[in-house]
Amino acid sequence: MSIRISKLINKIVMLFISIIVIFPFIWLFITSFKLEKDIVTWPPKLLADSYTLNSYLNVFRTIPLFSFIKNTVIFAGGVVISQLLLDSMAAYALARLNFKGRKLFSYLILLAMMIPFQVYMIPLFFLVHFMGLLDTYAGLIIPRMVMPYGIFLMRASFVSLPKDLEEAARIDGLSEIGIFFKIMLPLVKPGLVTLAVIILMNNWNDLLYPMMLTSNPQMRTLSAGLALFTGENIQLYGPVLAGTVISILPLLLVYALAQKYFVIGVATSGMKE
Amino acid sequence: MLHLLKRILNYWNTPRRAAFVFIIPSAVLLILFVFLPLLGTLVFAFFDMDIFFNNISFLGLENFVRFFKDQRAINSMLHTFYYSIWEVPLQVIVGLLLAVALQKNSLFNKFCRSIFFIPVVCSTVSVSIIWKIILSNNIGFATYLISQMGITAPGFLTDAKYALPTVALTTVWKNFGMTLVILLAGIQSISPSLYESAEIDGANAKHKFFRITIPQLLPSIGFCLLTNFIGSMQVFDAVFLMTGGGPQFRTETAVQYIYVRGFSAPYQLGYASAVSWILFIIIAVITMAMNLFLNKKERQYN
To answer: What value of ipTM does the predicted structure carry?
Structure first.
């Protein structure tokens, strides 16, 4: 009997926490459809008498939200594609090929993993500036084309494949590049999806990096654009909230479809050591 | 011509040589965009220079000395610590308790875990915007609910006394789902036989938690503590969005200070680089100390 009660209490507590987690999103969604005057009333109400699409129409008029969306897709998408390719190439060499300097390269990866971005962001800004790449997609994507943690993650996937795979392929006359693309890469698909999800999440949501490398409002990403549009004082709440809804919906959709990979991605990060 | 191409391809087609083809793009990019800038920070820190590379002069250690006389810089470090002291333990405790409560793979537990992970997926920017409005003095829903309970709500984000703990709480709200998942993976890999033999010895839930779960989970807990600490010392987005560093720089964090020094007039990049180094050294020293402590604890248990 007492076990049943404690289980019930447990469930009630969990449901309560779930509400705390979900409520701000429900509030956000409902409020984004309210009239401005219903948002800025005291006492605040969760529901209003009438709803409108005004905030959504307004946000496209007041800020270049279409550009923000386009920029974020190109930036995050470009980074995902290039990292998947380059991270797994390097990881494959580290995991399965013997070469001079392998140890040194592994140490460099580990070292790079430990250095916070904030420590070298200023010279990085200069570098991109001198390359003439500020406010360009290339400037946003190229410095992010490799992620040490991505190499680390993919290395684990390649290491776990059976050892004699490539020997058989070599005997069949497949080239080294062919072995990688035709045999190895398809075998680490789950690892690739997990990595893709991590990269997408990190870059879609990043603020400091894209904010630093863009100054033209037309080149801002969703995060940087919204952050600067919001500013110190919010003048109109409706459009800000509508923009927020639009910025989080795509990732929530990806999460709904690929939840498993988000969880694996995070859980494996805990096994780094 | 074709013959030559074939010979080149053949030359590179051994495992040893092909390895370089796979490695070189990553190596070049990492050197160019991580290690070179890192070296840059080290060099810049000894110079007085602005964003336009005008009037560069060598200062030696002056930028570092200046830090210790710069009250705003020191305060920004202290604020960051203060935020960290709230965020890290809360994050790990909440994550741990919920991971233990939800460790069985029942449908209900899986449902809760998926819900708890939703804020993790959202950007700090969006989450900060939401909380900033919900916690605002004039129109905030949370402020209203609290005032309904008969408590006068303080200015959660406008009163310097409450602002950083409030931001820390929203960060815990955003990220505990992640900590939970990491710790859950650790809990589920603990051998069930440990619990079974403890049950035979008549251990209750409390005993099992403190004598088995915690010691076995120490590496995962340590990982969460360290990564959360490193992350919280670099806090920028949440504080920038919710308080903007105000009132009167009283919630300004270290990274925000570096950003302001480097990227707004008078663009003191040399000094900003020096502060970056100081922050990095502080993080590195504390991380190493925590690591040593955790390793010692782990050895004690085993």
So the answer is: 0.87
